[in-house]
């Protein structure tokens, strides 16, 4: 049973490392993580360790394996729920109301830009201001932030270019 728990925890640790490394900018990654095989190998290793851990738990104590699988399902569901546009809209509205109470004299577009910069300081003020120009309402900003944070084709760099440059 100890081996199963250890393997399951190592699988979860691998997933956390992968999530942490992937969240940063490409050139801020450690040299080993810039290799194109790093992400798929780490994800595969993590999945194999987690599956092996669940299997060993099942063989030792089926109730423990069911509890661990249920816990993993709850974690997965929570992670999916916090990345939804509706949840991100709710968070942004809450933060907007708090910022409005602190600065009642500032226009809405300035508050929206501050929210974007507060949430993602690396993006910079110019990008935040441009986002507010392109998406002037709180709901539109929240939807765009949710899409950008989740990553979509063409933003994170994982899907490749949609219009590849011709080869010469």
Can you walk me through this structure?
The protein is mainly α. The protein has two domains: 2-79; 85-150, no CATH class. The chain is 71% helix and 0% strand. The protein is elongated. The longest helix is centred in the N-terminal third of the chain and has 23 residues, at 38-60. The chain has seven helices and no strands.
Task: Decide which structural class fits the backbone.
Answer: mainly alpha
Name the shape in a single word: elongated
Strand content: under 5%
Q: What would you report as the Rg, rounded to the nearest angstrom?
A: 21 Å
Q: What is the count of DSSP helices, taking H or I runs of 4+ residues?
A: 7
User: Could you say how many structural domains there are in total?
Assistant: 2
Give me the strand/helix succession: HHHHHHH
Q: What average pLDDT do the residues reach?
A: 85
Q: Share of helix among residues?
A: over 70%
How many strand segments? Answer: 0
Major beta sheet summary: none
Q: Flag low-confidence runs.
A: 153-168
Q: Kindly report how far apart the N and C termini lie.
A: 59 Å
In terms of topology, how is this protein built?
Blueprint: H1 2-23, H2 38-60, H3 62-82, H4 85-102, H5 108-119, H6 124-134, H7 138-150
């Amino acid at each position: 049973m100890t081996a199963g728990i250890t393997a399951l925890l190592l699988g979860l640790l691998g997933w956390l490392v992968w999530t942490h490394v992937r969240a940063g900018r490409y050139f801020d990654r450690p040299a080993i993580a810039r290799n194109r095989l790093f992400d798929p190998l780490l994800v595969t290793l993590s999945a194999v360790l987690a599956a092996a851990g669940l299997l060993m738990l099942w063989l030792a104590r089926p109730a423990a394996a069911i509890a661990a699988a249920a816990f993993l399902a709850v974690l997965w569901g929570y992670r999916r729920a916090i990345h939804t546009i509706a949840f991100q809209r709710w968070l942004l509205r809450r933060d907007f109301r708090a910022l409005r109470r602190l600065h009642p004299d500032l226009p809405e577009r300035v508050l929206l830009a501050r929210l974007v910069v507060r949430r993602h300081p690396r993006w910079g003020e110019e990008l935040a201001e441009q986002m507010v120009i392109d998406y002037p309402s709180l709901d539109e900003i929240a939807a765009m932030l949710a899409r950008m944070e989740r990553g979509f084709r063409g933003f994170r760099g994982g899907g490749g270019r949609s219009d590849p440059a011709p080869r010469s």
